[in-house]
Amino acid sequence: MDQAKPPSPVDPNSGFNTLTKTFHSLRPPIHLPPQNIPISAADYAFSLRQLNSPWPDSLALINSSTGQRVSYSDYTRKTQTLASYFESVIGLTKGDTAFVLSQNLIQVPILYFSLLSLKSNFELGCGPHLQMINT
Hints:
The chain is 30% helix and 21% strand. By secondary structure, the chain is an alpha+beta fold. The strands form three sheets. The chain has a three-stranded mixed sheet with strand order 5-6-7, with helices on one face. It has a two-stranded antiparallel ribbon with strand order 1-2. Strands 3-4 form a two-stranded antiparallel sheet. α2 packs across α3 (108-117). The longest helix is centred in the middle third of the chain and has 19 residues, at 72-90. The N and C termini lie far apart (52 Å). Residues 127-135 have low confidence and may be disordered.
């Protein structure tokens, strides 16, 4: 006897669940690495990019006010170079804290991912607002 499956309460066009009154992602689920594998958020993000990118030199960042552009390959290279500098020259390691106060610049995401890759704690201030971001 074949039982009919009840219709999903999630709208396939919007992702809205009528039972819980919340939205769900319509994208396929992302499989995260096991918790026992020590990998930083930045390293994981870069690994996804390397595995799934048919265009390694597509644009990652664009500064709309200056027109400055950074490709994904440059973004990855600059992030890894800066993280290596922080670790080898400055001695920044996991658990250390860095405070960054900066204007809204195209280099800030590179700095952010460099610090994320070291698993450091940092406070990042951009423009008139300060926000604390811990990894």
